[in-house]
C-alpha cells in the first residue's frame, strides 16, 4: 500500500472510549446555563432578526433589543404623560371647595388629573382655555344616571354657546368645554354629539354607582373608542364623580353671573422626563431594513 493511499484514507472511526470522552470534555469547559424566562423584548428581537444572515445576527439582536427596551420605557411612561390636567381659573370659591375635598394632588398643584380618551387625542402641549357648560339631558332629568346620548340638550344651550364663541374676537377664553354625564351610551357617542353642538372639548363626569376613585380613573380607566371615533376631533377626559359634582354645582349656580372658567392642558410634566436613544450603523444593510420597515 502506497503512502499516498494511506494519506487519502479517512481516519478510523473513534472507539467507544473516544465517544464517551468527547461530550465529557465539551461539558467540562462550559459554564452552567442560567435559566431565566425570556423577556418580551428579547423574544421580539429574536423574531425580527431571525431572517438576518448568521454573521450579522448578533449585531441585529443587540440593536433591536436596545430599541425594544427604549420603546418599552417610553410606553411605560406614556400612561403618566397622557393624563389631562384641568385647572379651574374661576370662581375662587370653587377652587377652595375642590382643595378642601382633596381634588388636587400635592405634586400637581391646583389641578385635577383626568384620563384622556383614546379618540380625538390632542397633541402634547395643547392648552384650551374656556368656559364650562352643562345642562341636564332632558331625556334623563329624573334618573340618577345621566346620559347626554342625544342632541336634545343642545337646543337648551345653543344660543349661549354661540354668544360665548364671539368673545374670541376680543381675545378672551372663547373655547367651549362641555361637561357630560357618564352612562348609557359609549364615550364616543357622547363626545361626537358635543362636538356637533359646538364644543371644543368635553369632560365626562363619572356618575351612577361605580364608586371609582380619582386614582383609579387616572391609572385604570380609559375612555376607549367604540370603533366609530375617527370623525371626532375634540379632546375629552374623564374625571371622578366627587370632583365633577362640585364643578357641575358651580356651573348651575353661577349661570349668567359667575361662569366657571377653566384651562385644560396636556403638557409633559418635567418630573417625568423620558430619554430614548437609538443607535444604528447607516452602512449596514440590516440597519436600513429595520429603519424602513
Specify the biggest β-sheet: 7 strands, mixed, barrel
The CATH architecture of the domain at 84-266 can be given as: 3-Layer(bba) Sandwich
Strand content: 5-15%
Q: Outline the low-pLDDT stretches.
A: 1-39, 71-82
CATH topology of the domain at 84-266: Glucose Oxidase, domain 1
The tally of beta strands, per DSSP, is: 7
Mean pLDDT: 73
Class of secondary structure makeup: alpha/beta
Radius of gyration: 31 Å
Q: What does the overall shape look like?
A: globular
Number of helices in the DSSP assignment: 10
Helix fraction by DSSP (H/I, runs of at least 4): 25-40%
Give the H and E element order.
HHHHEHEEHEHEHEHEH
Distance between the termini: 63 Å
Which CATH first-tier class of the domain at 84-266 would you pick?
Alpha Beta
Strand order in space, largest sheet: 1-2-6-5-4-3-7
Topology at a glance:
Blueprint: H1 3-8, H2 16-28, H3 40-49, H4 54-81, E1 84-90, H5 92-100, E2 112-116, E3 127-133, H6 154-165, E4 175-181, H7 187-196, E5 201-205, H8 214-220, E6 236-239, H9 241-253, E7 261-265, H10 285-292
Parallel strand pairs: 3-4, 4-5, 5-6
Antiparallel strand pairs: 1-2, 1-7, 2-6, 3-7
Amino acid at each position: 500500500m502506497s503512502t499516498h493511499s494511506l494519506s487519502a484514507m479517512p481516519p478510523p472511526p473513534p472507539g467507544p472510549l473516544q465517544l464517551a470522552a468527547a461530550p465529557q470534555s465539551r461539558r467540562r469547559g462550559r459554564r452552567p446555563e442560567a435559566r431565566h424566562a425570556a423577556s418580551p423584548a428579547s423574544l421580539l428581537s429574536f423574531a425580527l432578526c431571525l431572517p438576518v444572515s448568521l454573521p450579522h445576527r448578533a449585531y441585529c439582536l443587540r440593536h433591536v433589543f436596545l430599541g425594544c427596551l427604549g420603546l418599552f420605557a417610553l410606553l411605560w411612561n406614556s400612561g403618566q404623560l397622557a393624563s389631562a390636567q384641568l385647572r379651574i381659573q374661576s370662581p375662587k370659591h370653587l377652587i377652595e371647595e375642590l382643595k378642601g375635598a382633596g381634588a388636587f394632588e400635592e405634586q400637581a398643584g391646583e389641578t385635577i388629573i383626568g384620563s384622556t380618551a383614546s379618540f380625538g387625542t390632542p397633541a402634547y402641549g395643547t392648552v384650551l382655555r374656556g368656559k364650562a357648560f352643562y345642562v341636564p339631558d332632558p331625556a334623563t332629568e329624573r334618573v340618577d344616571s345621566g346620559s347626554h346620548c342625544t342632541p336634545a340638550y343642545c337646543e337648551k344651550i345653543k344660543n349661549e354657546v354661540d354668544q360665548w364663541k364671539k368673545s374670541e374676537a376680543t381675545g378672551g377664553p372663547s373655547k367651549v368645554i362641555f361637561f357630560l354625564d357618564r352612562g348609557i351610551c359609549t364615550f364616543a357617542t357622547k363626545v361626537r354629539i358635543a362636538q356637533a353642538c359646538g364644543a371644543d372639548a368635553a369632560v365626562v363626569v363619572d356618575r351612577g354607582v361605580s364608586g371609582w376613585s380619582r386614582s383609579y380613573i387616572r391609572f385604570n380607566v380609559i375612555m376607549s373608542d367604540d370603533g366609530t371615533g375617527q370623525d371626532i376631533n375634540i379632546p375629552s377626559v374623564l374625571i371622578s364623580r366627587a370632583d365633577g359634582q362640585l364643578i357641575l354645582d358651580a356651573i348651575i349656580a353661577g349661570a349668567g353671573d359667575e361662569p366657571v372658567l377653566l384651562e385644560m392642558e396636556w403638557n409633559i410634566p418635567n418630573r417625568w422626563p423620558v430619554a430614548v436613544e437609538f443607535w444604528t450603523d447607516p452602512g449596514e444593510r440590516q440597519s436600513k431594513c429595520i429603519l424602513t420597515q
